[in-house]
Design brief:
The chain is mostly beta strands and about 1100 residues long. The chain has 5 helices and 89 strands. The two termini are about 70 Å apart. The relative contact order is 0.05.
Length: about 1100
């Protein structure tokens, strides 16, 4: 819905559209005399004030988005307020408009209803509900009253008229730009004569109607938002470009305020005007009256706003003559026409008199205005003849002084519009124009219906020529439009899904006899409704919540949910989708933790039932289900799966319309949950949470707390273990006592834990329920002794992998914090490393806020004193370094060096800090030998050359203690793992996963057959487990040259740290460059965009 004030934009163009052109000297002026209120929820303040009204005593009522009504006296003094947020009596949801009837009762337009109060806010009654029915209100926006107490409500894009008790009388209008149509009608008012004025906002105009909805006239106003009438019958408008615009009843501008804008507007008996705007009320008084236009003699003339008119529509003629002079206006008679064949002059127009006239419908005396003009409206209907009529104006004192205008009246037409595809059971809106009759006759044709057509509202009835009772008859409104809501759920019997044609005719004629009748047709496809549903989890622990969410097509009021499980039957529970206040095609059914705690462990079957049309066919009486053509079945005596199948069989009966969705879930032991194990001192660097330290990583010596919740009751004892991810060894264990509301916690002291990755497991004592999480302990330098000559201090360094496990060719990551209390300092800080392919990122932080960051891809860089000097504030440098460990031949390598340089560039004595390391283990840069070395834990491996016959199967892994785990290969086609058996062949270019309980070696016996061709392997789109060939490392770009167009990402696995390496990207750069090395003997994940063949680069 686009609300009354949903789009309040001011364009400079609006000044042009705001009103008819009138010289400023001719206009009266409204002066701003007071402003009430400001933004807020206190008494006398406002939050987007919307509706405003004034009573006979001058008291002012204002509705705003604080969901309340405030009452003020005429000076703006706060008197009282009522209302709060909600859907109950006296509660509001962003009330849109407010009006008073003749008795002083206060009517509030609230969401989908009208609420009525006395002047002190006492609730009296309400009427209206959501929907498109005659007495329902779809997005009501405004209300007004005539002298008889009838109410006019803007709802559903048009006007609805009700009597004083809320009973529907008539309606008119719809979306469009023609006369009588609206594009966001926002406000309505009725004058003392019963004329109805509508602010047609996005059409930039005011439209005027009589009390039955007949269009009278219109005039332009740029984005009118509010409208009212004063005691003289003049029309006041609040618009986007001007707070107050005053017109006479024909749209002639009389007065205006200077600039500003307004939303809603009301006027008191004394002429004081009140306008809502933004978060205030503005008060205006007219300070000057319009200057009379001088009388200028004019020649007599007549013009029409339309040269041709389709009968059933109106047109307006304007005469120009002398000021304040009476002229005769008439339609020249035609001998062949009857009186009813002519257009007629609309009665009750200002300055138009038919007293004493013969045939007053087409003869009148017209008095010009002071400006010498007068506009007169003519109406036509279906009886008006298709003819060119001559309309004459003449001077009664001198009939030889006259002027003529010709207006052509054309035959009418019938149209129909609807949506192309709908679902059975939905309401289908039909609408159109019929200018050739007062009734539109609707019928339906289709493959399974009578050839001549059937009645739209009862498809069992075939239409008959000349028999209106066999058609669905729709009354044509006064402005020649008709509309009908076709309820496909209530048409005598259910239609089959398929394509149909709906006819709209001006006479009751069947499909075969429409040649001489105005008619139109619209094709429509009707589809069977559907339903989709899913559970929030396939498995739910007792005591945990479970949600069943879904969507439907069609327009059911509700769905039913059936849950069948061990010793559990919940049958046909309704889930309401639509009611008085809401409508949705989505639903959620929730089993709370209190409900699941009582469920027996096992499998549960869920069926969600959609009624399609006409209510649910299959229902439950106690535990017995039944339906049309369905034998009653007691589900209580069946196993859960049998009971679910019996329900499905009933729903699939050919006599049952219902459709359904089915799913299952499993109930397990009570839940134990571990909260995320994260550092509390993490640093935020431009959205990169904890860039310096891994969220779940601690340095040796730190203590942290593991917390969580459970549905076990307070006082229950749980157990916990902490085991090494590398070898499964138990490091710590203990008991936990559950506290109130299921909370539990215990502390972990990393001083007793070596560096590595660990798994925390918390379990019930009967081991029916458990939860796991992981954390990492790194070796690190915490508060190292600062160099004697340095003014900086290294707060913390963290290295991954550990310093003890840095092997040549591996990637290493260092993170650190350097504290630089350097107020007024004139010395630089230099950083360097001996890593290969270094990549630095740094940030300068002042008072925990990163104020500058940068990156470098060199072996060393410098931060100048200028960059580090922030007055009296201490500065910290957040440092991130990654690179490749050099070979064992490097001399005294250091991961990180820091030193100070003075203003001349020299090194400050004793200011250097160094973090040395020694590459360890077999240097993978050396040629590959005859063995595979396995680290404790999981290893991702491959063989770099073909193995000798008889030694080329999975038997080569028989000597490895895998602790019962299988050696695995990945099948890309089925996206699943396959366990190797002893006979499975091990070939180059394929990666395998193997678990080792400790450090171990796999001897390899390579083939020496020179006639054996190099290896090749067909790869599929998606992830593939691959290896490389040859005896020495090669770049990823060279290794994967044969699939250069297809590969995108290569990811290795570091068995020593049990973690994946950063990915290598095809055409990537820096840490992801495809010039990085890949190593024989290792396995890799390779992503392929399409199939391809990988060829060996070594034999």
């Amino acid at each position: 819905m686009i609300g009354k004030y949903g789009l309040f934009i001011v364009f400079s163009l609006l000044a042009v559209l705001a009103c008819p052109p009138v010289l400023a000297s001719e206009l009266g002026e409204y002066e701003l005399i007071a402003t009430w209120g400001s933004l807020g929820a206190d008494d006398g303040r406002f939050n987007r004030p919307t509706g405003i009204a004034v009573d006979a005593e001058g008291n002012v009522y204002v509705a705003d988005y604080c969901d309340r009504i405030q009452k003020f006296d005429s000076t703006g003094a706060f008197l009282l307020q009522w209302g709060s947020s909600g859907s109950g009596d006296g509660e509001f949801y962003q009330p849109d408009n407010i009006a008073l009837d003749a008795d002083g009762k206060v009517y509030v337009v609230d969401y989908y209803r009208i609420q009525v109060f006395d002047s002190n806010g006492t609730f009296l009654k309400k009427w209206g509900s959501y929907g498109t029915g005659e007495e329902q209100l779809q997005y009501p926006q405004s209300i007004a009253f005539d002298a008889d107490g009838n109410a006019y409500v803007i709802a559903g894009g048009g006007i609805k008229k009700f009597d004083s008790d809320g009973n529907f009388l008539t309606s008119w209008g719809g979306f469009g730009t023609y006369d009588g149509e609206f594009h966001n009608a926002v406000d309505v008012v009725v004058d003392a004569a019963g004329n109805v004025y509508v602010a047609d906002c996005y059409n930039n105009r005011i439209q005027k109607f009589n009390s039955t909805g007949a269009f009278l006239l219109k005039w332009q106003v740029g984005y009118p938002y509010g409208i009212t009438v004063d005691s003289a019958g003049d029309v006041l408008v609040a618009a986007s470009s001007t707070s107050v615009l005053k017109f006479d009843s024909f749209g002639n501008l009389l007065a205006r305020s200077l600039g500003g804008s307004g939303k809603d507007i009301t006027v008191g008996a004394d002429g004081t005007v009140y306008v809502t705007r933004d978060h205030c009320v503005r008060v205006f008084k007219q300070s000057s009256a319009p200057t009379p236009t001088p009388t200028v003699p004019k020649g007599l003339g007549i013009t029409s706003n339309k040269d041709s008119v389709v009968r059933g529509n109106s047109f307006t003629v304007t005469i120009t003559g002398e000021s304040l002079k009476a002229y005769r206006l008439f339609i020249k008679p035609e001998e062949s026409l009857a009186d009813s064949d002519y257009p007629w002059i609309v009665a009750g127009q200002n300055g138009v008199s038919t007293v004493g006239m013969i045939n007053p419908e087409r003869n009148a005396t017209v008095m010009t205005t002071a400006g010498g003009t007068r506009s007169i409206q003519f109406n036509t209907n279906q009886s008006t003849d298709a003819w060119v009529f001559t309309i004459r104006v003449e001077d009664p004192a001198d009939p030889t002084t006259y002027d003529d205008i010709k207006v052509k009246i054309e035959e009418g037409a019938a149209t129909i519009t609807t949506y192309g595809t709908r679902y059975l059971g939905e309401g289908v809106p039909l609408y159109g124009i019929n200018t050739d009759g007062e009734t539109t006759y609707l019928f339906l044709t289709g493959s399974d219906l009578a050839v001549s057509g059937v009645k739209l509202s009862d498809i069992k009835v075939a239409v008959e020529d000349g028999n209106p009772g066999t058609f669905t008859c729709v009354h044509v409104e006064a402005y020649d439009t008709w509309s009908y809501m076709w309820n496909t759920a209530d048409i005598g019997r259910r239609l089959n899904a398929g394509n149909y044609t709906i006819y709209a005719a001006a006479e009751p004629r069947s499909r075969d006899n429409l040649s001489d009748v105005k008619h139109a047709a619209a094709d429509i496809q009707l589809k069977l409704p559907s339903i989709k549903a899913a559970t929030s989890s396939d498995t739910v622990a007792r005591g945990d919540d479970l949600a069943i969410d879904g969507t439907v097509t069609g327009y059911p009021d509700s769905v039913q949910i059936w849950i069948i499980g061990p010793d559990y039957l919940s049958l046909g529970v309704p889930i309401v989708l639509r009611d008085e206040y809401s409508s949705s095609n989505r639903f959620t059914y929730r089993l709370t933790g209190a409900e699941t705690s009582n469920l027996t462990a096992g499998r549960y079957f869920v069926v969600v039932q959609h009624p399609v049309v006409n209510g649910f066919d299959v229902t439950a009486n106690g535990t017995t289900i039944s339906g049309p053509g369905v034998m009653p079945t007691d589900l209580a005596g069946l196993q859960p799966s049998e009971a679910a199948n019996a329900l499905i069989s009933a729903l699939e009966s050919p006599y049952v319309d219902d459709t359904y969705a089915k799913l299952t879930f499993t109930v397990g032991a009570p839940m134990i949950r571990i909260d995320p194990i994260e550092r509390a001192d993490k640093i935020n660097w431009f959205g990169k949470i904890d860039w310096f330290d891994w969220l779940s990583t601690w340095t040796c010596g730190e203590t942290f707390t593991v917390t969580g919740t459970t549905c076990y009751p307070a006082g229950t004892t749980l157990a916990y273990t902490i085991t090494s991810r590398w070898n499964g060894a138990c490091i710590l264990s203990g008991d936990i006592i559950v506290a109130d509301e299921g909370a539990w916690s215990f502390d972990v002291d990393t001083a007793v834990i070596e560096p590595g990755e660990y798994i925390v497991r918390v379990m019930s004592l009967d081991d029916q329920s458990s939860a796991s999480a992981s954390f990492t302990v790194r070796d690190g330098v915490v508060n190292p002794v600062p160099p004697a000559g340095a003014t900086y201090r290294v707060e913390r360094i963290s290295v991954n992998p550990s310093l003890d496990y840095l092997a040549p060719g591996e990637r290493v990551v260092l993170n650190g914090i350097i504290n630089a209390p350097r107020a007024g300092c004139q010395e630089d800080l230099g950083f360097s490393t001996d890593l290969l392919e270094p990549a630095w990122s740094y940030a300068i932080e002042v008072e925990r806020e990163v104020i500058r960051s940068g990156s470098q891809n060199v072996g060393s860089f410098t931060l100048s004193a200028f960059e580090l000097d922030y007055g009296e504030e201490d500065v910290r440098v957040l440092l991130h370094l990654s690179g490749t460990v050099p070979g064992t031949g490097a001399e005294d390598p250091a991961l990180l060096r820091i030193l100070q340089r003075d203003a001349s560039g020299g090194t400050v004595p004793d200011s250097e800090y160094s973090l040395p390391f020694t590459p360890s283990g077999n240097d993978p840069i050396q040629p590959f030998g005859d063995n595979l070395t396995l680290s404790p834990g999981w290893n991702f491996i491959s063989v770099p050359r073909p193995l000798a016959a008889g030694n080329d199967t999975a038997m080569i892994f028989s000597g490895i203690n895998t602790t019962g785990r299988s050696v695995l290969r990945y099948n890309t086609t089925i996206r699943d793992w396959t366990a190797l058996v002893e006979e499975d062949r091990i070939a180059p270019l394929e990666g395998f996963w193997i678990y080792s309980a400790g450090l171990s070696t796999v001897p390899l016996n390579f083939s020496t057959d020179p006639l054996l061709p190099p290896a090749e392997r067909i790869l599929a789109a998606g992830w593939n487990a691959v290896g490389t060939t040859g005896t020495a490392p090669a770049t990823a770009r060279d290794t994967l040259y044969s699939v250069n167009r297809e590969w995108s990402t290569l990811i290795g696995f570091n068995a020593r740290s049990q973690s994946f390496e950063s990915g290598i990207v095809n055409g990537g750069s820096d840490a992801n460059a495809d010039t990085r090395s890949v190593y024989p003997g290792r396995g890799y994940w390779l992503s392929m965009s399409g199939p391809g063949t990988l060829y060996a680069i070594g034999a």
